[in-house]
Specification:
This protein is mostly helical and about 325 residues long. It is built from 14 helices and 2 strands. It has one domain: Orthogonal Bundle (ABC transporter involved in vitamin B12 uptake, BtuC), CATH 1.10.3470.
């Protein structure tokens, strides 16, 4: 499939997945009623309109935004590290967010937050931000920012944050332990319009800045020295990408918990399909990430309804088999 064809196909699938996410749940809603509530045409059922406007629609939009953010940030990190197995957690943001959320759950879990975000979400965002700042500080010296040092610093800071989270789990009571475990599995059940507004604001910045670095990321695939000879301000690109990825992944983890797999495998799958050109890879990854998380969240709500499965479990169960099949086909093609 051509690169433009894949982007067009994903663009056509995304609205269908959004509509299905609004229609399906513990109670299935009729398509006509949902379309009436969304468009305001006809005489929609008042109760159905409330369900769509205040529960289903904000959750669907938040899910799509989080999936797109995780995937495009993963693609940017893979380009920056020149490694298709890289993901945003390598710069410590996920581990830091987990530690921040765990701190709040153990010591201040009953307090309220602000701007539509719970105190746990704010703690997660703060923890992820602190972790990224430490990683960037350790990796930056007089000669500039070293990607290799950033990777090692991310591993070290991630290990420290993981140890802090484990220590907090050791001291937590049963209720706190359950809240920490569920948060680390990921979930979008706390979706509301203020959260959508916060994530959408960050997403607008990420979607504006990251694709603008596509040519620089393409040049970095040749190596840093070659990119400098091509006129790329390598250190500025590194700093810009690290900060914007930290913001995108940080807000995603803050509102949805730690959702693994999307930032790692979605860009890798898209790269296998259309190649490494970031001018196409970045938007296609964002669309594919939104679709994958929408499908996973919809299934999480209906598989054992009315109980919800953690969406992080479904992302791995949905994406891993497809990823393995692509790798097998690629291996057979290379042979």
């Amino acid at each position: 499939m051509s690169r433009g064809g894949l982007v067009l196909l994903l663009s056509a699938i995304l609205p269908i997945c959004l509509l299905m996410a609004v229609m399906l749940g513990a109670v299935a809603l009729p398509a006509s009623g949902v379309l009436g509530a969304l468009t305001g045409l006809g005489t929609p059922d008042t109760r159905l309109a409330l369900i769509v406007d205040y529960i289903r629609l904000p959750r669907a939009l938040l899910t799509a935004l989080v999936g797109a953010l995780l995937a495009i940030c993963g693609a940017a990190m893979q380009g920056l590290f020149r490694n298709p197995l890289a993901d945003p957690s390598l710069i410590g943001v996920t581990a830091g967010a987990s530690a921040g959320a765990s701190l709040v759950i153990v010591f201040a879990g009953t307090l309220t937050g602000l701007a539509g975000l719970s105190l746990v979400s704010l703690g997660a965002f703060a923890g992820g931000t602190v972790a990224v700042m430490l990683v960037y500080r350790l990796a930056t010296g007089p000669a500039g920012t070293s990607v290799a040092t950033m990777l090692l610093a991310g591993i070290a800071i991630g290990a420290i944050a993981g140890s802090l989270t484990s220590l907090l789990e050791f001291y937590a009571d049963n209720d706190m332990l359950r809240r920490i475990s569920l948060w680390r599995m990921g979930g979008l059940d706390g979706a509301n319009w203020p959260r959508v507004a916060v994530v959408a604001g960050v997403a607008l910045v990420v979607f504006a800045v990251v694709p603008a670095q596509a040519r620089a990321l393409n040049a970095l695939l040749l190596g840093e020295s070659e990119a400098r000879h091509l006129g790329v301000a390598v250190d500025a690109v590194k700093r810009r990408l690290v900060l914007i990825v930290a913001a995108g992944v940080g807000v995603s983890v803050a509102v949805a918990g730690a959702i693994a797999f999307v930032g790692l495998v979605v860009p890798h799958i898209v790269r296998l399909l259309i190649g490494p050109d970031h001018r196409w890879l970045l938007p296609a990854s964002a669309l594919a990430g939104a679709i994958l998380l929408l499908v996973a969240d919809t299934l999480a709500r209906i598989v054992i309804a009315p109980t919800e499965l953690p969406v992080g479990l479904l992302t791995a169960l949905l994406g891993a088999p497809f990823f393995i099949s692509l790798l097998r086909r690629r291996r057979e093609y290379d042979l």
